[in-house]
């Protein structure tokens, strides 16, 4: 009989510690402490009503499964030998859309924990892998990839798995994990200086898996002799940090996680990435949906071990699969993508943003009116980059490029306050909802080969060091400069994890929120985040994956109104039709694909920070 635990274990006894534990966290803005009105931080006054945390449902005619349970891969004939529990339910037995009985966002019903699907955090090992990218053979290094798993509140065996991550590249998943998607929130608007229940947790919609990218968050790289600076430096190369290896890392982690959890091994998977996470999602979906073509060496990337692992997974959950799975077979499981202010179409997307931001209704003119700082568009000047001109103008006007109505670097200042909480042991366990002392690979004594930095004293935060990034795109330098300035002004708390897990060498660290070195390395790869191949893959993907993209008004760095315009720049597209909260891409081959595109008028680059309620409800409607 399947054992059901109806008593939800909130916290281990050792974690029942007051959140006011002498932490040196500094609230970046007193107006946000324990306040539900984040828009009071606007620099300029506005008569527009605050919608940040109001009920704002969006109608949707789409259904995630179109009412057809066959869209889930059936593993009824392929029971994992390691799972002896009777009555196991496959994803095909239940529509993974949310029903009224599942919607308990405001009730007090107890969470039901199913054996084998409890709250869980830990590491998944990545071995060395040889691959080919742009006809050049390389080898990726070893790593331990950190994950947080939270089961759905009800019926997790039949619910989809949401896989969350942030971008950068070089950023951890902490922002989206700690800011209003998971069971607990660090958002000071709700949690003050501590940890609080998140009313809009996505556990009401499905199972949640958060993954830290290689060398970010709690994930760390491994070399044979980390005390050797040359060994550490050699790891920070494009062999480890490029669009396709990054995607391969995440595919391996997701498949291995599913293999370790037989009850949801065949469940639908929905990828949810923010910012560069959109590029990562694009590459992950493209490799998976077209693995048979990749395996025939018809694409820019080739990794035979990865392709074999993908094939083995689908052969296990669907006995009808022989050889490499078809696009249709893969798309039944990896069926959806949620892109939060994504970089999805490379340089073409940035060019489209620059063009849209020069139009008469551009928010840059709103900034000009509010600040008196004159904006001068490029116009027809041949040697003026419209995107760089716009982003530099916002910075020079003292506004946040990620949230233009707020002061310079507002978003990072605001979220750093919450992210720093996870490095406090008394709160760490509350966020992951399990006992961190039982995670062996966290301890200093067990971090064999672990390291974070190429140098011996961490990162240099000197702005003049940007000179060594002279080959990077100007837009990347702007982002790097803003981030370095912000971190210098507001260093992230180092926390007290060493007091529990042991002292680390100077080149290692328990937690790393972002890495400037990783970001810069990505843009030296043969396929970088600005490459056109990303846009081509994105457009191919929306034909086979149900797609949701946020349209946040205040984000300049990836101004979402330009997303449909960017699609028009690719030769495969004949036209793009825009609606109120969707757009449809018409392709020259006669196919069309509609993308859900809801509007967030009060949101920054991070929609879950500003409008978590609307975001939750929009995704719920999209799934139904």
By CATH reckoning, the class would read: Alpha Beta
| Percentage beta strand | 15-25%
What is the tally of beta strands?
23
Distance between the termini: 31 Å
**CATH homologous superfamily heading:** Alpha/Beta hydrolase fold, catalytic domain
Any idea of the CATH topology? Answer: Rossmann fold
Oligomer: single chain
CATH architecture tag: 3-Layer(aba) Sandwich
Number of domains: 1
Helix content: 25-40%
Overall residue-averaged pLDDT value: 84
Number of continuous helical runs: 20
* SSE class: alpha+beta
Any idea what the shape is? globular
Profile the largest sheet.
9 strands, mixed
Radius of gyration over all CA atoms, rounded: 23 Å
Structure characterization notes:
This protein has about 625 residues and is α+β, with helices and mostly antiparallel strands. The protein has one domain: Rossmann fold, CATH 3.40.50.1820. Helices cover about 30% and strands about 15% of the residues. The strands form seven sheets. Strands 3, 6, 7, 10, 11, 12, 14, 17 and 18 form a nine-stranded mixed β-sheet that branches. Mean pLDDT is about 85; it is low at about 1-105.
């Amino acid at each position: 009989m399947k054992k059901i635990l109806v008593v939800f274990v909130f916290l281990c006894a050792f974690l029942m510690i007051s959140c006011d534990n002498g932490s040196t966290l500094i609230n970046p803005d007193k107006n946000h402490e324990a306040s539900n009105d984040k828009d009071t931080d606007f620099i300029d006054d506005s008569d527009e009503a605050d919608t940040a945390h109001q009920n704002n449902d969006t109608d949707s005619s789409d259904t995630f499964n179109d009412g057809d349970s066959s869209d889930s891969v059936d593993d009824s004939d392929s029971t994992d030998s390691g799972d002896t529990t009777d009555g196991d339910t496959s994803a095909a037995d239940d529509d993974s859309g949310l029903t009224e009985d599942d919607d308990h966002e405001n009730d007090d019903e107890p969470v039901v924990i199913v054996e084998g699907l409890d709250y869980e955090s830990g590491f998944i090992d990545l071995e060395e892998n040889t691959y080919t990218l742009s006809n050049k053979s390389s080898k990726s290094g070893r790593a331990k990839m950190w994950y947080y798993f939270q089961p759905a509140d009800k019926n997790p065996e039949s619910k989809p798995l949401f896989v969350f991550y942030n971008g950068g590249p070089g950023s951890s998943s902490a922002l989206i994990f700690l800011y209003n998607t998971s069971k607990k929130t660090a958002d000071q608007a709700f949690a003050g200086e501590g940890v609080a229940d998140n009313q809009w947790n996505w556990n009401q919609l499905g199972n949640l898996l958060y993954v830290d990218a290689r060398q970010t968050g709690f994930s760390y790289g491994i070399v044979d002799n980390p005390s050797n600076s040359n060994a550490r430096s050699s790891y920070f190369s494009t062999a480890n940090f490029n669009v396709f290896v990054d995607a391969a890392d995440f595919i391996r982690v997701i498949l291995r996680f599913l293999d370790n959890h037989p009850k949801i091994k065949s469940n639908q998977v929905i990828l949810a990435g923010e910012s560069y996470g959109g590029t990562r999602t694009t590459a992950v979906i493209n490799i998976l949906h077209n693995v048979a073509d990749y395996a025939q060496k018809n694409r820019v990337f080739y990794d035979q071990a990865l392709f074999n692992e993908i094939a083995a997974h689908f052969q296990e959950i669907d006995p009808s699969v022989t050889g490499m799975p078809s696009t249709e077979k893969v798309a039944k499981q990896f069926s959806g993508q949620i892109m939060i202010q994504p970089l999805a179409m490379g340089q073409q997307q940035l060019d489209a943003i620059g063009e849209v931001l020069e139009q008469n209704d551009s928010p840059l003119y709103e900034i000009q009116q509010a600040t008196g700082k004159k904006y001068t568009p490029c116009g027809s000047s041949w040697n003026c980059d419209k995107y760089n001109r716009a982003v530099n103008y916002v910075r020079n006007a003292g506004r946040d490029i990620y949230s233009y109505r707020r002061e310079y670097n507002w978003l990072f200042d605001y979220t750093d306050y919450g992210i720093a909480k996870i490095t406090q042991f008394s709160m760490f366990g509350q966020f992951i909802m399990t006992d961190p002392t039982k995670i062996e690979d966290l301890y200093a004594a067990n971090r064999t080969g672990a390291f974070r930095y190429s140098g011996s004293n961490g990162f240099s935060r000197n702005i003049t060091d940007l000179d060594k990034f002279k080959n990077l795109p100007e837009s990347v330098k702007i982002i790097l400069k803003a981030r370095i300035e912000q971190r210098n002004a507001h260093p992230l708390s180092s926390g007290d994890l060493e007091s529990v897990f042991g002292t680390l060498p100077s080149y290692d660290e328990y937690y790393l929120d972002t890495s400037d070195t990783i970001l810069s390395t990505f843009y030296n790869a043969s396929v970088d985040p600005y490459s056109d191949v990303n846009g081509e893959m994105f457009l191919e993907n929306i034909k086979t994956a149900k797609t949701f993209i946020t349209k946040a008004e205040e984000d300049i760095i990836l101004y979402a109104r330009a997303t449909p315009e960017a699609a028009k720049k690719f030769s495969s597209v004949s036209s793009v039709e825009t609606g109120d909260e969707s757009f449809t891409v018409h392709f020259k081959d006669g196919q069309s694909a509609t993308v859900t595109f809801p509007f967030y008028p009060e949101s920054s680059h991070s929609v879950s920070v500003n409008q978590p309620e609307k975001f939750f409800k929009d995704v719920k409607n999209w799934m139904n």
